[in-house]
């Protein structure tokens, strides 16, 4: 399998890249910072330096061409303001979708977030405005990308991410109660979703008792 990962130096993305490369898949990692390329190469990932806040559709399409799937795991990151939430978490995600369509890549996995529906009607009372902007940006990306008939899209909404060691056991379903999930397990679920070829759905993910492979296979 050939997989292109946007935001490839992120904590979940690097875990996914190592899983894919470790079993012999080809991984193209899109990163903004040239200083991150050595880390990706150490992971067995082929880096492509592109700033998704300024790159053209054609530039991104060239990077993902011939991929079997693309994964959007980029994010503006902690400490960034509301505008970058929209420029990365929304617009860059849509740019990757545009590029995948242009390059003829159907499969698109979008890493979103639990809680996005809270922000559908604006900033919930008492919520930090920047965090609300993050949720709004993720939700706007979901709303734009999921209906596209040229893409086979899966949106994964993990709960609060932790650096705890993965357990390989999760709860993966629609309408899951909010909770935590190790980044290791998020990467493992993304890998399983890639292998399973799921399409056109939104699923939520927290820690649980079901082995990852069974959790994905058991999705309705």
TrEMBL record:
Task: Name the InterPro entries on file.
Answer: NAD(P)-bd_dom, NAD(P)-bd_dom_sf
Which domain of life does this protein belong to? Bacteria
* Gene3D superfamilies associated with the record: NAD(P)-binding Rossmann-like Domain
- Residues in domain NAD(P)-binding? 7-195
The stretch of residues making up the signal peptide is none
UniProt name for this protein = NAD(P)H-binding
């Amino acid at each position: 399998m050939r997989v292109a990962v946007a935001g490839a130096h992120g904590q979940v993305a690097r875990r996914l890249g190592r899983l894919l490369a470790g079993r012999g898949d080809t991984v193209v990692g899109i990163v903004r910072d040239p200083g991150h390329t050595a880390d990706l190469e150490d992971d067995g990932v082929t880096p492509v330096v592109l700033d998704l806040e300024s790159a053209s559709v054609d530039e991104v399409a060239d990077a993902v061409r011939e991929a079997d799937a693309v994964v959007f795991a980029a994010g503006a990151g902690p400490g960034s303001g509301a505008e970058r939430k929209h420029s990365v978490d929304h617009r860059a995600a849509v740019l990757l979708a545009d590029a995948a369509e242009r390059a003829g890549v159907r499969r698109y996995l979008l890493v979103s977030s639990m809680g996005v529906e809270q922000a559908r009607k604006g900033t919930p009372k008492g919520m930090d405005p920047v965090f609300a902007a993050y949720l709004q940006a993720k939700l706007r990306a979901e709303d734009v990308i999921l209906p596209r008939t040229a893409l086979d899209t899966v949106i994964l909404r993990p709960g609060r991410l932790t650096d705890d060691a993965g357990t390989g056991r999760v709860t993966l379903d629609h309408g899951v109660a909010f909770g935590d999930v190790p980044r290791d397990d998020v990467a493992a679920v993304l890998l399983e979703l890639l292998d399973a070829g799921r399409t056109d759905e939104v699923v939520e993910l927290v820690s649980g008792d079901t082995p990852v492979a069974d959790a994905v296979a058991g999705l309705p």
